[in-house]
Every structure is written in C-alpha cells, then in structure tokens.
Amino acid sequence: MSQIKEFPLPDLGEGLTEGEILSWLVKVGDTVELNQPIVEVETAKAAVEIPSKWAGRVHAIFQEEGAVVAVGTPIIAIDTGPASSSTSPASTPTEASDPAGSADASSADEPVGQTSAAEARRDPVLVGYGPRTTPVRRRPRKATAAGSLASPTSASPTSPAPAAQPTAAPAPQPTPQPTPQPAAQPAAQPAASPTPPGAVPPQRGTDRVAVLAKPPVRKLAKDLGIDLATVTGTGPHGSITREDVQQAAAGAADATAATAPFDANREKRIPVRGVRKLTAENMVASAFTAPHATTFLTIDMTRSMRAINRLRKLPEWRDVRISPLLLVAKAVLLAIQRHPMINSTWAGDEIIVKEYVNLGIAVATERGLIVPNIKDAGRLTLRELADTMTELVQTARAGRTTPAEMAGGTFTITNVGVFGIDTGTPILPPGQAAILAFGAVREMPWVHRGKIRPRQVTTLGLSFDHRIVDGELGAKFLRDVGEFLTDPELALLAWA
User: Fold this and answer.
1) Residues 224, 228, 229, 234: what is their CA dihedral angle, to the nearest 10 degrees?
2) Torsion over CA: 251, 257, 260, 264 (sign)
C-alpha cells in the first residue's frame, strides 16, 4: 500500500529562508535509502547535499533545477509503503500531472480513474503542482463556441474522440447548463479541447489565449518582461520553454538596441542571490556600522621563505601542502596571545573578548568569496594547522563548505597575494574586530645589513574596528606579526 510523504526544504540554520536547487541526485522511480543524499541546494551560506528522511521510492519531484524555493516548501515526494520497492509510482490511480484534466490523460475507451499506458510511460508530476492523493474526478469541459459543450465523464466507449480545438482567439463562452450533454457538432465546427496541463484557460468574454508553460518559465518571463502570449513554444505539445523565453528576450533586446544609443546585447545581468547576496549584505552592514581604520607594514620575508623550504625537505612534511600563508596564520595566533583585545566583538554596552580563536581564511570560489574558519586554531600544532588549512581550502573550492564551518569566526586572514596584489584595505566580517590582508611576496631591492640586496618582500594590511582597537593596539599587533615573519625561528624561541 502506498504511503506517500512530502519532503519540504528544511531549515538549514542561521536564519536562512530560501535555497536554490542546484541539482537533483535522484529521479522519479528511483529507490532511495534513509539518509541518502537526494538533492544539492545552494543557500546564502554554502552548497549542501540534503539527505532523505525516509527510505522508499521517489514518487514525484516538485521543483526544477535552478528554482529558488522557500524553506518549508515541498520539493520531493517519497513513497514509503512496503510495496514501494516493487510498485512504480506511475501505476497508482492518481493523476498528479494534470489537476485540471489533460487531453491525453485517458483515452475514450478507458474508465475515469484508471491509468492508461500512455500515463504509465510519462512523468506523472507537473512541477509546481505536486502529486494528487485523491481519485481523479474530471470536471465538465468548457465550450469554446455557442452550443458546444462536452463532458469527458459522459463519453461512451463507442463515441469518437473530439477533434482538436484551435487555441487562437476563441469565441465568447455561453453559460454551461447544470447537466451538460454532448451536443451535435456541425461538420465545419471542431469540438472543445480540454485545457493542457500548465496552461492558462481562456477567460470568458475575452480574447486571452491559453499558454502552456511551467511555473518557473512563467516567472522567468515575468522577470524579463516577456508576454507569453507572444511567444511560440517549441516544447512538448507546443509548450513554452526557458529557451523560448530567452530567445524572445534577446529579440526584444535587438529591437531596443536598434534605436538605443547603446548595445543592450553587450550587457549581462547576474541575479544577486546565494553567497553573493549574503556577502553584499554583510559588507554593507559592516562598512556602515563599524568605524574602519587600516595600517600597513612592509617586511622582509626572506627567512620565512627559507623556513618553508626547510620544512618541505623534512620527511614528515613531504606530503604536506605548505605555503607562506601557514606562517602568517601562526604569526597571527601568537600575536593574538600577546594582544587578546584584537580578538573580540563589540556588543554595544560591552566588549566581548574571546579566549579562543576561530581563525577565518577567506577563499575565492566559483560561487563567490566565502570565509570558513578553523575552530580553536590556537590549540593546534603547526602540522595540525597546515593539515586543517589544506582541508578547509579544498572543501571550500569544491563547494562543500557547510554553514557551521563559516559561523563563529573571531579573526580573519585574506590572502590577496595569490592574485598578485601587494595589499589592500579589507572590510571587517560582521562581529569581528580585525582582519589581516596578506599581499604578494616579491623579490625586491631591500637594504639588508647596510647593503642593497634582492630580498623576498611583502606588505601586510590590518583593518580594525576603531571602537575596540585604537591606533596603538593595531600598530603593536601588526608589528608583532611582522617580527615573526621577518625571523620566525627566533620569534618561536623568544615567544615560547
């Protein structure tokens, strides 16, 4: 016996209200196990795989890939009944694909409520409506000409199927009788046709044309300002696809560009959502809430670069990914021990100083800039710190960082040097007192021991919340980070 359960988009935490369906990992008819990943969803925090809450067979998928879905909206239905492993969802007596009745849902010689072979071969779900859980009850078809009324419930097995009705400019509709009966049709007058699934039925007394398009396509047309009635559909049964709408939008842009003083085709519009939207909101909130101040320091990192090369040659470090960022992170952690106020949060009537460091590392990904953090990084050894940083960056670039891994950061490092940038004035992540920009390490002329020599030089930029960190504290903190990177071996001995 079927036991169909609808699975809504869950609340992924941190106040998130919606998510975008990136890709479905299952399809209708697949058998799924408990906790098996079924869909990949992108939120404002990260892209995550959502596991199934039940074991069973996929009965219906309600949302297409690319759809933005509110938390709590059903996205999939799973048949958890004991017979779900052997019974196809298409064999159930439901008709989820057409809530209003479909022209090819049942033939004239099949009783209403039974599933035809054509229905069993096609996907029984129309995205946006979901599956039906009640027996099919067809409503009388509306007439498209005076005296033309047809009811599929009154059709006999020997009655011929009604002819197709053109959809262009239907005539005004008469008021249906309480018990409509099939009326004789003139030879030149076609019979009424039921409204296709997903179409807008013609309105009585108007010239509105029925349009066959799925809800996401209708939303796209609305966003682009395209009238679906003017679009020719190339999909199944003449339905309008996303490509049809986009081509119509491009055609409209061409017409506008012909008279406009600019070429609209050379503009690209990118929806602001997901990580980009959250980053924008956070940066605006931070920039106009915390008074920023920035200090800079240019240092000689030649000895740090030599120390990295020595580490790489050690047998226990040969398989470890080591970069200058590792020593910068260690320098920050040691400097925070000397200046704990730099690792704090402004709370209005008090300052909360953290006795732990959740060290954030800004990572550029295809989805935008994200900042996962290493929990309690001050307790890690240098080797543990290197392994954790490598895993953190690889996970972020693969798009698998979870919201929990980005929450609770207390201090952030942004490595702008990987892009060849000398330094910058970074904006504080909300709730943090400071952020360090690490610039590119370049070979430059430098005065060393009274002589000009080529040395490995970089510039550090420290932005801080001036409500918490004054100029003196910011300068001392940055000086200590610079001293460590100038001679890390000596600093480790002196600061231990």
Assistant:
1) 130
2) positive
Residue 301 CB contacts under 8 Å (≥ 6 apart), including other chains: 324, 441, 456, 457, 458, 485, 486
Whether 466 sits among the annotated catalytic residues: the reply is yes
Range of the domain at 445: 275-495
Catalytic residue among 59, 237, 448, 466: 466
Instruction: Report which DSSP code applies to 54.
Output: S
Q: pLDDT (tens digit, 9 = 90+) per residue, 402-456?
A: 888 888 999 999 999 999 999 999 999 989 999 999 999 999 999 999 999 999 9
> Is the four-CA dihedral 377, 380, 385, 391 of positive or negative sign?
negative
pLDDT of residue 279: 75
User: Facing residues of 50 across strands?
Assistant: 39
- pTM above threshold 0.70: no
Domains: count for the chain: 3
pLDDT at 15: 62
Find out whether 320 and 387 touch, Cβ atoms under 8 Å. yes
Residues 10 and 133 in one domain: yes
* Residue 181 included in any domain: no
Q: Are residues 205 and 138 in the same domain?
A: no
User: What pLDDT is recorded for position 58?
Assistant: 93
Cα(152)–Cα(373) distance, integer angstroms: 63
How many angstroms separate the Cα of 113 from the Cα of each of 134, 155, 156, 173? 10, 14, 15, 28
Least reliable range by pLDDT among 35-49, 189-203, 372-386: 189-203
